[in-house]
């Protein structure tokens, strides 16, 4: 396997991809997040709470691997935290919610719409600015945040929220409306700083809720966030963890520019959304990236590139979900090497 050197910078490559122009190689965006902290000897807790640590970690990851997108992300609950939810921070794992703030319907008075500067949201803004200052001429920066369904579920408690979708849907919608307004305010601040917002909906997964529930409770609010981002003049991808085969068409109908796909056969995915949505995915972050070996990663990437060859409106090689801090760095390198081998455009010539 011959690994070729990049000709374009990530910024040039993604710009050309979005403009439908020739590329030197396939756009490659493995979902590498807080595991970059280990590159500079910092803990998960420091990464989550300190903008300088977050920025330096991601700069180190970008310089090491040269992937096409930096993903700023700490945990799935930080938007809920900004709305009034208390989180517990750990030294070497993501913060989590132990006691949902909306234990009873009347507790909704304990939360508020986040205006955009509460809790740890400013950490993201400062990190974006630091990264943009250091490598913004070459790098693309994004920020991942939980959508309305997942944020509301955190505020209420996951099990209780699912019960509420049957027994108290009005409360669900009230929580999701507040979460949506909070997310809109956050998106606005992110876009102001030149970063791409990415909607995460881990709890809207087909592994957890039915397509009918997705249509009723999740899809309308995702669509509202997508519309808001488009009004601001930015693209906005959508990532849903787990099984998504049965909701792919609905995901596409939200208007999200890129569908980040986890557990779904891309042969099926490309049939369902061909001509509608860019697909990003879906090397397994566990079966492939966590355990390897590198030869398996090379083969998985090669198969995906061949499967999606010629797909329109475009394919981005990535992992199916976030890579954990236990993934060996050489396995992330193996994914990038695969892109620089199997995904190279041999006829590409850079324009002056």
Please write out the topology.
Layout: H1 10-18, H2 44-49, H3 51-65, E1 70-72, H4 78-82, H5 121-135, E2 141-146, H6 148-156, H7 158-167, H8 169-192, E3 196-200, H9 211-231, E4 238-243, H10 248-253, E5 258-263, H11 266-273, E6 278-283, H12 294-307, E7 315-319, H13 329-342
Parallel strand pairs: 1-2, 2-3, 3-4, 4-5, 5-6, 6-7
Helix pairs in contact: 3-5, 6-7, 6-8, 7-8, 8-9, 12-13
Name a few traits of the molecule.
alpha/beta, seven-stranded parallel β-sheet, Uroporphyrinogen_deCOase, uroporphyrinogen decarboxylase activity
How does this structure look, described?
With 352 residues, the chain is an alpha/beta fold. The protein has one domain: TIM Barrel. Helix content is 44%, strand content 11%. It has a 7-stranded parallel beta sheet. The chain is globular and about 65 Å long. The two termini are 30 Å apart. This is Uroporphyrinogen decarboxylase.
């Amino acid at each position: 396997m011959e690994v070729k050197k990049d000709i374009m910078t990530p910024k040039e490559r993604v710009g050309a991809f979005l403009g439908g122009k020739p590329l030197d190689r396939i756009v490659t965006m493995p979902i590498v997040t807080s595991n970059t902290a280990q590159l500079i000897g910092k803990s998960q807790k420091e990464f989550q709470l300190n903008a300088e640590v977050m920025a330096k970690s991601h700069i180190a990851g970008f310089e090491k691997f040269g992937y096409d997108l930096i993903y700023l992300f700490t945990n799935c609950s930080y938007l809920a935290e900004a709305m009034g939810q208390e989180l517990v921070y750990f030294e070497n794992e993501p913060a989590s919610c132990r006691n949902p703030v909306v234990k009873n319907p009347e507790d909704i008075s304990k939360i508020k719409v986040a205006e955009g500067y509460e809790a740890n949201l400013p950490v993201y803004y400062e990190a974006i600015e630091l990264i943009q200052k250091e490598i913004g001429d070459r790098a693309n920066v994004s920020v991942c945040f939980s959508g309305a369904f997942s944020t509301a579920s955190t505020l209420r408690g996951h099990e209780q929220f699912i019960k509420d979708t049957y027994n108290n849907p009005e409360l669900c919608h009230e929580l999701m409306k507040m979460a949506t307004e909070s997310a809109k305010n956050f998106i606005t601040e992110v876009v102001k700083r030149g970063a791409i917002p990415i909607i995460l909906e881990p709890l809207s997964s087909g592994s957890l809720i039915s397509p009918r529930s997705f249509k009723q409770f999740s899809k309308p609010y995702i669509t509202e966030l997508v519309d808001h981002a488009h009004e601001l003049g930015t693209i906005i991808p959508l990532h849903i963890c787990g099984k998504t085969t049965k909701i792919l068409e609905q995901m596409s109908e939200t208007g999200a520019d890129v569908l980040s796909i986890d557990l779904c056969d891309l042969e099926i995915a490309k049939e369902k959304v061909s001509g509608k949505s860019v697909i990003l995915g879906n090397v397994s972050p566990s079966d492939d990236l966590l355990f390897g070996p590198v030869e398996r990663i090379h083969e998985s990437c090669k198969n995906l590139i061949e499967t999606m060859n010629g797909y329109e409106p475009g394919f981005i090689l990535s992992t199916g979900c976030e890579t954990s801090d236990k993934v060996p760095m050489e396995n992330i390198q193996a994914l990038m090497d695969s892109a620089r081998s199997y995904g190279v455009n041999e006829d590409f010539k850079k324009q002056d």
